[in-house]
Each structure stands twice: as C-alpha cells, then as structure tokens.
C-alpha cells in the first residue's frame, strides 16, 4: 500500500492559505496549489472548536480515507489542505465525500476519464 504524503510544516499550510485556490462547502474547505513535483501531498486541519479529541480524530480519519480512495482521480503534483468546518462533526461519511469531490471539481483538480 502506498504511503500518504502529508504536509507537516506551518509554512506549508500558510503558503496554501495565502497563494492557493480555495473552494468551500458547508462541511469543509479545500485549498490547492501546484507543488512542482509529480507527487500529491495533503494536509488536514480540524479546529479545537469542533469538539474534543475523539470527535476531531474521527473527522480526520474519515477525511484521510476519503482522500486515499479518491486520490487516483485527482491530478498529480498538487498540495491540498482540507479544513473541516463545525458542521463536519454531525456529517456522515457520504456527505463529507460528496463535499470533498464537489470542491475538487470546482477547483479543477479532478482528472478527466478520457483515455
């Protein structure tokens, strides 16, 4: 199984917030930017305002799985940050997945399936 490459440093997140494109849904916001490589990287942000550690980690796990399953349909070489909003605590998996794919579609990072 391929390892998920994540964003860790604060300056990487800040660069995406300031220079990247964004798309918002009621449960999450997605930021993206080209990273100059052929590998995609991803970061997840879940604020303390959303809930306790159990709730935040549950949201983070669902978002990580959504990205893992849908990353083959996304463009390579993109840095992506997914920011959970407060409604994400009550959202189920399918609502999070449809919101993520909707935001990615609006950003234009979903690959076309023409071959």
Explained architecture:
- The protein is an alpha+beta fold.
- It has one domain (21-106): Ribosomal Protein S5, domain 2, CATH 3.30.230.
- It has helices spanning 10-19, 53-70, 93-107, and strands spanning 21-24, 28-34, 41-45, 78-84.
- Strands 1-2-4-3 form a 4-stranded mixed β-sheet, sandwiched between helices.
- Strand 3 (41-45), helix 2 and strand 4 (78-84) form a beta-alpha-beta unit.
- Helix 2 (53-70) crosses helix 3.
- The longest helix is centred in the middle third of the chain and has 18 residues, at 53-70.
- The protein is globular.
Brief characterization of the structure:
With 115 residues, this protein is an alpha+beta fold.
Which architecture does the CATH hierarchy give at level 2? 2-Layer Sandwich
Helix content: 25-40%
> Do you know the CATH topology?
Ribosomal Protein S5, domain 2
Order of SSEs: HEEEHEH
């Amino acid at each position: 199984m391929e390892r998920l490459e994540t964003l860790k440093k604060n300056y990487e997140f800040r660069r995406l917030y300031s220079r990247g494109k964004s798309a918002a849904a009621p449960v999450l916001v997605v930021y993206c930017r080209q990273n100059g490589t052929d590998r995609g990287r991803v970061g997840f942000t879940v604020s303390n305002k959303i809930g306790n550690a159990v709730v935040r980690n549950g949201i983070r796990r669902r978002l990580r799985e959504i990205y893992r399953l849908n990353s083959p349909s996304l463009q390579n070489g993109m840095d992506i940050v997914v920011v959970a909003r407060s409604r994400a605590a009550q959202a189920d998996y399918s609502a999070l997945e449809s919101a993520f794919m909707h935001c990615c579609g609006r950003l234009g990072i979903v690959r076309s399936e023409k071959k």
